[in-house]
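Issue 218. Parser rejects a valid record. Input:
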Amino acid sequence: MGTHERKEREREQRRQDILTSARAAFVKCGLEQTSMDRIAQEAELAKGTLYLYFKNREELIIALMSEDLEALLQMLQKVSKRKQSADKKLLEAVKTFYRFSSNNEFFYRVITQVNLHTSFSVAAAGDNAIRFCEQNERVMSHLKDLVQEGADTGLFHLDHPPQYTVMLLMFSMKGSLIIHRNGMAPPNWTTID
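Output the parser choked on:
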């Protein structure tokens, strides 16, 4: 292996270490309270080194969300490939999204606390924002395809385009996460799985 390849591998490893440290800092301190200083401290790096890899906090958050969306996308692709009816695949996709969000504190906090459209600009987050938008579109397309498959096979009757149903599902999932995680359900409903 040449020097160039080794340096690229080391750079990518440093970037991944920064992302891991940033994720830990955001979970520990909260999204709004976590500064680049705090992330540099968590990563045990000089703040200047951090800025060599990420130009701002928004770029870091979007890079982390992009990683998470890629993992979620892989899970949803597995669900889509199953030899099941569309209604069962859609239900499993919803469960997959819910489990992923429930088990990933950073992802949960971002999707329930941050307005990505107003909080981040493509200019602030650079290529990571473009990648994030593309991944988000792919996640939504997987769900849309499952809804369309159900409509095509007669399982679902749609009065609106499949995208409308997907948006309602996404709103419902986000709301259910907030209600469940914050203990907002009526006490006698908490035993429902």
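Fixed in the parser; the record now loads. DSSP finds nine helices and no strands in the chain.
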